[in-house]
Amino acid sequence: LMDRVEAGESACFALKRERRADLRKGMVLVDAKLKRPEAVWEFEAEVEVKYHSTTIHSNYQPVVHCGTVRQACAITLVDREVLRTGDK
Asked: What DSSP line would sit under the chain, residue for residue?
């Protein structure tokens, strides 16, 4: 039996007396004393292209894999026009 899950870990549990319509994918449980998590529409990241068969332009739409999350995104290049294999 597990009584605690840390950031970056996944866990499953059963909820009783909760309607399926009230739950949505991506909802999280947090300690009521902590600040509520906030969703973001954009973030800044440093990306290194290990291998890609084509040139990556602005508005390229890859899927980001982060832990158990898989989310489509759009790349906005700031300091160059394109990214190729080996670029950072």
From this structure: ------TT-------SS--GGG--TT-----TTSPPP---S--------S--SS-EETT---EEEETTEEEE-----SS-SEE-TT--
